[in-house]
């Protein structure tokens, strides 16, 4: 079980139906979306996905001629109350770790929020967050299969 989650990133045209095509193809293949983020970058949007089966999802997207690459993110659980994100970020700032991007994963379990991060140094961020008592979620917690065995 890894604390670095593999995230699929694709660029899709900002056109009616394009997001539907992607999500329908993944859903039809039995791929469950665990978390996602779509950001407008002009003519294209950048779609970031945490999925139940990374290898199969990437294969499906490539077959659709949608270039998909994989990078690693870290999922941290924080209290759902004012100031929690600042508490998480303070030791990272002190350790010189930058946040490249982040997005929230909505859950109502136990009154906590899950934040998905890509850091300038994911390994160092994991070390700092663990030392600060932050609960990090692994691939099993998200139900993510990263490679076929």
Describe the structure.
With 149 residues, the chain is α+β, with helices and mostly antiparallel strands. The protein has two domains: 5-71, VC0802-like (2-Layer Sandwich), CATH 3.30.2130; 73-142, ACT domain (Alpha-Beta Plaits), CATH 3.30.70.260. Helix content is 31%, strand content 37%. It has five helices and seven strands. The chain has helices spanning 18-28, 54-63, 84-94, 122-131, 139-142; strands at residues 5-13, 33-40, 44-51, 68-79, 99-105, 112-119, 135-137. Strands 1, 2, 3, 4, 5, 6 and 7 form a seven-stranded antiparallel β-sheet that branches. A hairpin with a 6-residue loop joins strand 5 and strand 6 (112-119). The two termini are 14 Å apart. The mean pLDDT is 89.
Largest sheet report:
7 strands, antiparallel
CATH fourth-tier homologous superfamily of the largest domain:
ACT domain
Number of DSSP helices? Answer: 5
> Tell me, what is the CATH class of the largest domain?
Alpha Beta
Which term fits the overall shape?
globular
Tally of domains: 2
Series of H and E elements: EHEEHEHEEHEH
**CATH architecture verdict of the largest domain:** 2-Layer Sandwich
Report helical residue fraction: 25-40%
How many DSSP-defined strands? 7
TL;DR?
The protein is of the alpha+beta class. The protein contains five helices and seven strands. Strands 1, 2, 3, 4, 5, 6 and 7 form a seven-stranded antiparallel β-sheet that branches.
